[in-house]
Amino acid sequence: MKRQFSLAHLTVLGCAPPEMTYIAAMAGYDYVSLRPIYMGLPGEPNYDLAGNNEMMKQTKRALADTGLKLLDIELARIYDGLDPKRYLPAMEVAAELGGKHVLSSIWTPNRNFYIEKFGELCDLAKSFGLTVDLEFVPIAEVFDLAGAVDVLRAVNCENAGIMIDTHHFHRSKDNVEDLNALPRQWFHFAHLCDAPGEIPTERDEMIRILREARSYVGEGGIDVARILNQIPEVPYSIELPNLEKVKEFGYAEHARRCIQTAKDYLDAYPRE
C-alpha cells in the first residue's frame, strides 16, 4: 500500500482552506485535514465553511483543481453542556467535500455525559457516511489510551474510531504493545509529528509544545516508528505546528519540510 499523507490545518493554521489546499498539493500531499469547527482559541482564525459561502466555494475549487481529497475535519470536542447537533453544519461540509472522518476529543470529567454525547455524535456522523475518531490529548480529560478505549467500548458504534497522535501517545506514557491488541477496524488515520523526548512537567510548557513547537519527524525524541508499527497502515495526517519554522521558512516551505522529513524517516525505519 502506498503511503498517504494529509496536511493537518494546525500545521499551517494561518492559511485559509483554499490556500492550504494549494500548498498541500505543491508539497506532495494526498489529502488535507481541515478545521471548519471554530473553537475560539487565542489567535485562531475562523474557517467556518458552513457559514462562509465564498470560502466554501473556493475550497471546492481548490480540491477540484489539485485533485486532493479531504481526509477529516476537526475538532468536534465533547464538553459540558454540548449539544452534538451543533456539529451538523460542519458534518454537512465534510460530506459535501468528500471527507471521511470527524476528529473528536473529550474535555469534561463527567463520564456518563461524555459517553452519551460521543455516542450521539457517532449517530449523527453515520448519516453522512463519516466515522468519528477519538483523539486522547494530554491536557484533556480523556488523556490516555485506556480512557479512549473505554469510550469506544462503551458506545460500541460501528463508525467510532481511535486516532493516535504520536506526540500525545508519547506524552501519555502508554505502552505501544497495547495498541496491537485493539481492533484493527478502529484505526482510520493517525497524526504524525515529533517532539522533545523529555516530557514537560509544567502544563503551560506542554501546551506550548503541543500548539506551536512540535518537531519534524526524526528530529525529536519520540520513537515514532515503534508507535506506527503497532497500528495498521493508515493515512498519516501531519500535525506539526511550529511557529519558529513558519517564521523562518513560511507556510509553504514548512509544509514541504514536514512531508519530506516524514518520508525520509519512514524510509529509514520501514514497517516491521
UniProtKB/TrEMBL annotation:
The keyword Thylakoid does not apply. Keywords: Endonuclease, Hydrolase, Nuclease. InterPro entries: IolE/XylAMocC-like, Xyl_isomerase-like_sf, Xyl_isomerase-like_TIM-brl. The keyword Hydrolase applies. GO terms for molecular function: endonuclease activity. PROSITE patterns: PROKAR_LIPOPROTEIN (PS51257). Residues 24-244 form the Xylose isomerase-like TIM barrel domain. It comes from the Bacteria. This is AP endonuclease.
